TrEMBL record:
It catalyses: gamma-L-glutamyl-L-cysteine + hercynine + O2 = gamma-L-glutamyl-hercynylcysteine S-oxide + H2O. Residues 20-153 form the DinB-like domain. One of its GO terms (molecular function) is gamma-glutamyl hercynylcysteine sulfoxide synthase activity. It comes from the Bacteria. It is an enzyme of class 1 (oxidoreductase). This is Hercynine oxygenase. Pathway: Amino-acid biosynthesis; ergothioneine biosynthesis. It comes from Embleya hyalina.
Length: 448
């Protein structure tokens, strides 16, 4: 979002907000209407909420922040606040709560949405006004919140046993030049602007913009593929203790990690389960469903390392010709289906080398979309960080416990995929749509 004058509020900015909310709701309904009440209230994995919890939680957050706080409207269902407070009840305990049944949950989110759209009609997006409404932030925040839960619900779908209920067209094939791409791209040494002060819908953890000096480095042109990951497995990578961080080794042994989640071997063939279907592991696709420890071990096995968060963002945003940071690898224009694999348009990553139109100035491809990419970095505050609008969105997660993921996967909408967006999770998590790419320091002569 560029800066908007109040006079522009009624047309462009409001229709963008309305469209983002509508897109999120279409996904939410698509992910919940395809299952029976029984499947919606079941817990498919102790890692996840019942889908009906996500559904009503989406509505409750919209009621709390958009309808009540920003809109100043009276509470609709204050009795639901405690039930759907993510901090009060860990995911594993949520099935035992007196949750709304699927139909009442649908009614509730619908009633909240009617009020949310009324608030939107009357809102003043004046950038100097109420910070929740400025540039339509709260509408963007709730669209992003819903889309993030839509991705979480997609992960629940992937964990669920039983026949497939979701369908989507196949992603585009790799273009003819994919096989000949250089393995890595050089990003020259120098400063770049990380984070943002000007993106109206950026969340608190993406702010403020600050200059970071990054030494020259080489970055994989594309995410690590299943074929490459299979070489690591075949070379005994899971048993190569020297490649694993000490905590990673402990976790590997306790959890019995031998391959990405959802993979198994039959004879010489590796198979995987994907949204209720069994298929051979496709060799040219970015690896997905690996934890941070596996990504880190692979990188060490390859004689490389994971990129830092700053290295990832510089590759994705820095335009050396203009000396400025872009919103996306390809420029500032919103993603189209030619740029990136986003929005659950396809239910798998595209082959490595796809989306040439989405390439960064360095030549790196698929930085946005396809798979989240683990970085080497802990989730921490940028210098000058201020929690907004609540500490529990980001601040309480800062620290060495969580690793940053960048780029967004096929499962997230463009409203949560931009060069500055930061995701985070525990280094043991594998149910998220996470892969990675690797990096190495450039030698002094290569600094560019
Ligand atoms: C940013 C994806 C880690 O799912 O826990 C959802 C997003 N925050 N509701 C999460 C979020 C509050 C968050 N992640
Ligand atoms: Fe939430």
């Amino acid at each position: 979002m560029t800066s908007l004058k109040p006079s522009e509020t009624p047309t462009s900015a409001k229709s963008i907000a309305r469209a983002a909310l509508a897109r999120a709701r279409r996904r939410t309904l698509a992910l919940t209407e395809c299952l029976t009440d029984e499947e919606l209230t079941a817990q498919h994995s102790p890692l996840m909420s019942p889908l009906v919890w996500d559904l009503a939680h989406i509505g409750n957050q919209e009621e709390l922040w958009l309808v009540r706080r920003a809109g100043g409207r009276p509470a609709l269902r204050p009795d639901l606040d405690a039930l759907y407070d993510a901090f009060r009840h860990p995911r594993a305990n949520r099935p035992a709560l007196p949750l709304l049944a699927p139909d009442p949950a649908r009614d509730y989110v619908g009633e909240v949405r009617v009020r949310a759209l009324e608030v939107l009609e009357g809102a003043d997006f004046d950038p100097d006004g109420d910070p929740l409404l400025a540039e339509g932030f709260v509408f963007g925040m709730l669209a992003q919140h819903e889309q993030q839960h839509d991705e979480t619900m997609l992960a629940t779908h992937q964990l669920r046993a039983g026949p497939a209920v979701l369908d989507a067209p196949e992603p585009p094939a790799a273009p003819p030049d994919a096989a000949g791409l250089p393995g890595e791209v050089l990003v020259a040494a120098g400063p770049f602007e990380m984070g943002t002060d000007t993106d109206g819908w950026a969340l608190d953890n993406e702010r403020p913009a600050h200059v970071v000096e990054v030494p020259a480095y080489w970055l994989d042109t594309v995410p690590v593929t299943n074929a490459a990951y299979l070489e690591f497995i075949a070379d005994g990578g899971y048993d190569r203790d020297d490649c694993w961080a000490p905590e990673g080794r402990r976790h590997r042994d306790e959890a019995g990690l031998r391959a990405p989640l959802f993979w198994w071997r039959e004879g010489d063939t590796w198979l995987r389960r994907r949204f209720g279907r069994t298929e051979p592991v496709p060799l040219d696709e970015p690896v997905v469903h690996v934890c941070w420890y596996e990504a880190d071990a692979y990188a060490r096995w390859a004689g490389r390392r994971l990129p830092s968060e700053a290295e990832w963002e510089k590759a994705a945003r820095h335009d050396p010709a203009e000396g400025r940071s872009r919103r996306y690898p390809w420029g500032d224009a919103a993603p189209t289906p030619e740029h990136a694999n986003l929005g659950q348009r396809h239910l798998r990553p595209a082959p490595a080398g796809a989306y040439p139109a989405g390439a960064a100035p360095s030549g790196a491809r698929q930085l946005l979309g396809d798979v989240w990419e683990w970085t080497a970095s802990d989730f921490t505050a940028y210098p000058g960080f201020a929690a907004f609008p609540y500490r529990e969105y980001s601040e309480v997660f800062f620290g060495p416990g969580h690793k940053v993921l960048r780029g967004g996967a096929f499962g997230v909408d463009e409203v949560v995929a931009r060069g500055t967006f930061r995701n985070w999770d525990l280094p043991i998590r594998r149910q998220i749509f996470a892969g990675f790419r690797t990096a190495r320091d450039a030698a002094p002569g290569e600094a560019g």
